[in-house]
Amino acid sequence: MEILNVLVVEDDADLRFLIGDIFRDVGCSVRDAEHGQQALDVLEGWRPDVIVLDVAMPVMDGFTFLAQKRQVPDLTDIPVVVVSATARGPIDGVEYVLAKPVDANQLLLAVKQLAA
After folding, report:
1. 20 Cβ partners below 8 Å, 6+ apart?
2. Which of 2, 21, 1, 25 shows the shortest CA–CA distance to 13?
3. What is the DSSP letter of 68?
4. Residue 1 has what pLDDT?
5. 32-69 burial: b if 16+ Cβ within 10 Å, else e
6. Distance CA 113, CA 18 (A)
């Protein structure tokens, strides 16, 4: 896999670390956020190649984050993969919806296809 910049947005610290490690193990650069508002703050100074997003989070959930992302022209083309225990696709503005617990190979394949 080519070296990609990945933003992981997940409120569960252990899962956020685990998903980040999946990408770090293949050489990607990873930044993370605990909720949607923090993700928007990260995106003010950094542009990832893909966003891996949970939807059920405190402060700002994934659906609100997606709505806010659509309002910023510089962010609209960043692909999003949702990883969720409850959400099912299709979701507007989301390329893939994967179920928790997420399979590392499935997640890497989805991101690789988006980066191609």
Report:
1. 6, 8, 30, 32
2. 21
3. H
4. 59
5. bbbbbbbbbebbeeeebbbbbbbbebeebbbbbbbebb
6. 21
> 18 by DSSP, 3-state: which?
helix
What does pTM read for this prediction? 0.94
Q: Where are the alpha helices (DSSP H) in 1-116?
A: 13-24, 36-43, 62-70, 104-115
CA distance 93 to 82: 10
User: What is residue 52's DSSP assignment?
Assistant: E
Which pLDDT does position 93 carry in this prediction? 87
Q: Mean of the pLDDT values across residues 23-32?
A: 95
DSSP-based three-state secondary structure for 6: strand
Quick one: CATH architecture of 5-115? 3-Layer(aba) Sandwich (3.40)
* Tokens coding 18: 């685990």
Domain ranges in the chain are 5-115
Q: How many CB atoms lie within 10 A of CB 28?
A: 21
